[in-house]
Amino acid sequence: MIIKSIKLRNIRTYEEEEVRLPEGIILFEGGIGAGKSTLLLAIEFALFGLGNEKGTTLLSIGKNSGSVELTLETGGKEVKVHRGLERGRRAGGSKAGSLHQGLLVPAGVKQSDCWIEVDGVRTSYSPSEMKEQVLKILNYNEPVDPKAKSVIFRYAVYTPQEEMKEILSQPPDLRLQTIRKALRIEEYKIAMENAKAIASDLRKEAEYIRKGTERLAEIQEEIRGIEERLPDREEGLQRLKAEAEMIEGEIGKLKERRGSLQAELLARAKDAEGIDRIESDLQRARKEIADLEKKIETGKKRLEDLQARIKAIGPIIEPAMSEDEVEGMLEEAKARLSGYDKELGRLKADLDNVKTLVMKGYCPTCNRAIDGAEYAAHLQEAEAKYEKVRMERQKTAEEIRDLERGRKEIAEYAMKKGQLNGLEATASEVEDGIFDAQHRLGEAKEREKELSERKARAEGAAEAYKAVKRECEECEAQITKKEKERDGILSRKAALEKEIAVERNRLADLKAEAERLEGERRRAERLGLHSEWLVKYFAAALERIELTVMNAVRREFEEEFSKWFSYLVEDPSKGVRIDEDFTPLVTQDSYEQDVGNLSGGERTSLALAYRLALNRVVQRNSRIGADLLILDEPTDGFSKDQIGKMGDLLRELGLRQAVIVSHERELEGAVDHIFRIQKEGGRSKVQAGSS
């Protein structure tokens, strides 16, 4: 695995930053607090999540969200890993936090927007799923614990500053346990403990099974008793079957006789069937005859009444004109009458005017005398015109009166015509009713005759039916008696069959149980052998394997440890080795030297050599490859000569990529690439420099 780029957004003192990492030895340089270690924490966060850390330690103060995106190359594939951080909301709707006793309490921060992109294909995961997928991609064979950092990553790739020298001061048992977990040697011990626990369980189970097989002799004795009783019970069952079959034959003959009697009874029942029903039908027929005769008589009386009313109306003459024609003429005459009234008004005014002139003898307009003879002629002409129009009006008024009388006659004709049609229709209906009633009366009389004859036949057949019925009842009583006798035998037979079935089932169960217990006895013997094998052979073999592996790892570790210590400390009189608990021991001129007496640079060299040895051993035993190494402030207390050797040391490791975080400017000459980190206005920025 090598890192190709890291992109940060609102992570601690970084606002928006993207750093592209080349291959080779890389130095992140900057002052204390500039933000160097933040890059390493961001890398670990992107890969494995928060672990037991809180999101508030990574998310920038005052920001509600942030993210880290890491681009890797592993197994020949490009992989992008992205994790986001999001500040939750507290009660009251506060976005960033809430007040508690006057202090601002930051809201909780959780992971969000987690995804992995492999060769351009992106898949979203939950935070815990992300860690599981990353471990698979990196081929880290270790348990998935969302609340812990990756052990392999911490020991094989990344060494935080605070953990560099911590391994030297750890208690021996804790140090050994840590190394055993990192190298997965602890699994041998777990396997041995599991084997012993399983062996103990197997012994207990074998003992439990043996106690259960103590009933085997008792079961076998019961089997023999059942096998002796069964023949006598089966012989008694055969006798009951024979008795039941004999009685069943007698019942069959009686049922044949009953069938014949029932057929005869059915035949006679058809003749004697329903005397009461026939009588009821006869009474209904007679009542229907009476009702129809009454209906015919009533209909004839009503028909006579209707015919009398039709005769009273007499013949009616249809008017010459229709109602619409009369209405049209009446409307036209009324229009003429109105015209005559208007003309008479005008002529009356002219006549009155001429009469006034004649009476006065002069013209009131010009005061000229009037010629009496001339105006007398005018007066006579005006009177003649007035009289002519008056006569025309009178003639028209009489015409209107005649038309109104005609309209009244037409209405009277229509009324009488309607009455006559209604009476004639009703009379026709009454005639039809009488005809229908007469027809139904004939049918009812025929039905009365037929029912009377059926009643006579049924009364004669009833006596014969009663005699057959008595014989049939006697046969039924004999069948019931025989069936009761048969049922008693069948009941005893069923009880005996049940007893035999119970015995047989019990026998089968006992044989199965005996076979099972025999099998359990053999299984208990096998379990005992398995328990003995697990303790004597398997656990012992695991213990030898563990010891062999541990010794091989210890030799490999000690070789690497001595190699890197000698490389860093050029003092041929000093040497290092480890004891059985992997405790580092320093010797000078073959005498052990207390670690506390070492100089600061020597202690740092000792810690770095120990971590490099651990790094190499873990990488080899984990089969994860040796492409990347990350060191945080590894040269604390180093001399300039020791710092200068760091480049050669890292190149000796043969890594594709090594990342060092340090404030030591002397390391610049030992690396291939330099990135300088500066903090301006509270924000960290990364600038690429020249080596």
Report on the structure:
Residues 185-350, 379-406, 441-527 form a coiled coil. Residues 5-230 form the Rad50/SbcC-type AAA domain. GO terms for molecular function: ATP hydrolysis activity. There is one protein chain. The chain has 691 residues and is α+β, with helices and mostly antiparallel strands. The chain has a domain at 2-184 and 569-689: P-loop containing nucleotide triphosphate hydrolases (Rossmann fold). The chain contains 13 helices and 17 strands. It has helices at residues 36-48, 127-138, 151-156, 161-164, 166-169, 172-182, 186-212, 216-272, 275-313, 323-360, 372-568, 600-622, 640-653, and strands at 2-11, 14-20, 24-30, 65-74, 77-87, 97-100, 103-106, 109-118, 121-125, 158-159, 574-578, 584-588, 591-593, 628-632, 657-662, 673-680, 683-689. The strands form 4 sheets. It has a 6-stranded antiparallel β-sheet, with helices on one face. A 6-stranded mixed β-sheet has the order 10-14-15-3-16-17. A 3-stranded antiparallel β-sheet has the order 11-12-13. The longest helix has 197 residues, at 372-568. The chain is flat. It starts with a strand and ends with a strand.
